[in-house]
Amino acid sequence: MAHFDPNARPFSHKWLNERLAIDTLKRVLSTEYWIPKNINFLWAMGMVLAATFGMLLISGIFLLMYYVPTTKEAFDSVNYTIMSQVGYGWLWRHIHGVAASVVFLIIYIHMFTGIYYGSYKRGREMIWISGMLLFVTFSAEAFSGYMLPWGQMSYWAGMVITNLFSLGSLHLNGLVEWIRGDYVPGQAFLSRFFMLHVLLMPLIIIGLIVLHFGTLRIPHVNNKDGEEFDFEAEAEKWKAGHRKESKVIPFNPVFLSKDVFVLGIYFMFFFYLVFYHFEFAMDPVNFDPANGLKTPPHIYPEWYFLWSYEILRPFSKNVGLIWFGFAQVIFFLLPFLDRSPNVAPANRRGIFKIWFWLLLIDMVGLTIMGKLPPVDPWSKFGTVFAYTFIALWFALPFITKMEKPVGGK
Amino acid sequence: MSNRRDFMGMALGAFTGLGALGALYAAKRTWDPLPSVKAAGFATIDLSNVPENTLHVEKWRGKPILIIKVAKNSKPNTAPNGNDKNAYDDKRLITVGGHKFMIVVGLCTHLGCIPDYFPDKHKFICPCHGGQFNAAGEVLKAPPPSPLVIPPFKIDGTKVVLGEEGPEYKKLKESGLVS
């Protein structure tokens, strides 16, 4: 039976502690959550992502107050009401647009950091998988949000992406019409994607962020050398005052103060974009209202989807769809396709080092080709990059199987 | 005791499962196109004033309908897949009032972009992924896997009614030419 001191002052520390165990919560969640010392600024990307998600949420709340989700009014509610009538409406829109784009840049940095340091195996598989689920839900959130201004690119991206669900020669047109609620994207489509964007997807994302944090708890964060050590023993050293000898630091306040420093630098870059270069996140084509009878001359997704979109293009419809599906799921399987027990930075892992840099260069190549019109020589380069992407993933189990053990430091 | 608990557990599970299935079905039905959307599915188009070898665009069920009065010589200038026959002889054309017309849904069969027509080249080129079609809607260059789709139609003098299956459409359908 819990003990409640009848003399405790309401809302005093003691009073709250008896009711909510705030001391225990603080200890477990922050002051005694241990992070390795041997890390660099790339370990701050998780907090950078959390903060960017916060920016999206806050700016989204303000946009939601004036946005009208109808095919007749959506375009004007964004481009006229929010942009020129609502006081500081432009600020929320530019924060929302820039953050939606930059969040993917940070996600990719966060992902490739994990791949480079092998932070997806030896107990960290669930961190990787929950992170990939976040990547997928962020993609769905970005896509559904892109529909809302109801411009030309919104409409035609909606048309092209929903058509993918006919699954090529299976001709599942019924499924496509079911997703749209109409023969073409229209009011039903806009309303349901509005619902997904402002309610269902954010709920799922918040749940997955909690899961992602949870998956870190037992295996702990990786370090620059992939070194495995006893966190409990190192934590005892810290608590005993041997802070120099200990290999760990507490999340709060030590790690968080490093995070806040990186966040400071990041937000300078972020607000520079918001105030001076927001146009990179605002496609000019989407400043024409949606028109179902006129395709824009060249349809392309936002930059962060280009690499997987480019994998569709070189192939015939069915084959393209198969490889597109492959590209969407293959990253989930990384912890199981990497057959090497080594948890070490890629530069100590022999052929894997080459694999890592090839994958990175290949995905940048796919991204650039995806933006260019589908004519030679670009489509030829795109084909080569697409085949290379597929070949790299098929090669991964073999090159990691052959890998020699590397000792951690 | 444990048997009784098992039974209660299974009964609860079964009823909850039934309820979940029902809710899923309701959710599925909620996302179906509304009856008003389904019902507004007809369009009548008069073809008597359509000029030759010029793209004429109409709208049916929210989709663009591409119409070309095909000229006698409509051979595409190039055909990367070798299909360079004269579109005028194509069996997919629809004869209305003594003239041959291509009437298709104007969405590329690859991913649904609207192909652009180039009258001097006698071909369509899709802006999204570079697919090409001749003036009868047949594929000249991948990625589109199949010709442009012919919508259900009924001929009425010099007019066509889209959304209704006339005898000419049924004939095309039997020969497998509509999609």
Secondary structure blueprint with pairings:
The complex is a heterodimer of chains A (409) and B (179).
Chain A: H1 13-20, H2 22-31, E1 34-36, H3 45-64, H4 74-85, H5 89-117, H6 125-147, H7 152-163, H8 173-180, H9 187-217, H10 231-239, E2 248-250, H11 251-276, H12 306-312, H13 317-329, H14 334-337, H15 351-371, H16 378-401
Antiparallel strand pairs in A: 1-2
Helix pairs in contact in A: 1-2, 3-5, 3-11, 5-6, 5-11, 6-9, 12-13, 12-15, 15-16
Chain B: H1 2-30, H2 35-39, E1 43-46, E2 56-60, E3 63-69, E4 94-96, E5 99-105, E6 116-118, E7 123-125, E8 132-134, E9 139-141, E10 153-156, E11 159-162, H3 167-174
Antiparallel strand pairs in B: 1-11, 2-3, 3-5, 4-5, 6-7, 7-8, 8-9, 10-11
Describe this structure in words.
- The complex is a heterodimer of chains A (409) and B (179).
- Chain A contains 16 helices and two strands.
- Chain A has helices spanning 13-20, 22-31, 45-64, 74-85, 89-117, 125-147, 152-163, 173-180, 187-217, 231-239, 251-276, 306-312, 317-329, 334-337, 351-371, 378-401, and strands at residues 34-36, 248-250.
- Chain A is globular, with a radius of gyration of 24 Å.
- Chain B starts with a helix and ends in a 5-residue tail after the last helix.
- In chain B, β2 (56-60) and β3 form a beta hairpin.
- Chain B has helices spanning 2-30, 35-39, 167-174; strands at residues 43-46, 56-60, 63-69, 94-96, 99-105, 116-118, 123-125, 132-134, 139-141, 153-156, 159-162.
- Helices cover 23% and strands 26% of the residues of chain B.
- The chains are: A mainly alpha (409), B alpha+beta (179).
Which properties best describe this structure?
heterodimer; A: 409 residues; Cytochrome Bc1 Complex, Chain C; two-stranded antiparallel ribbon; 16 helices; 63% helix; 1% strand; globular; B: 179 residues; alpha+beta; Rieske Iron-sulfur Protein; 2 domains; four-stranded antiparallel beta sheet; elongated
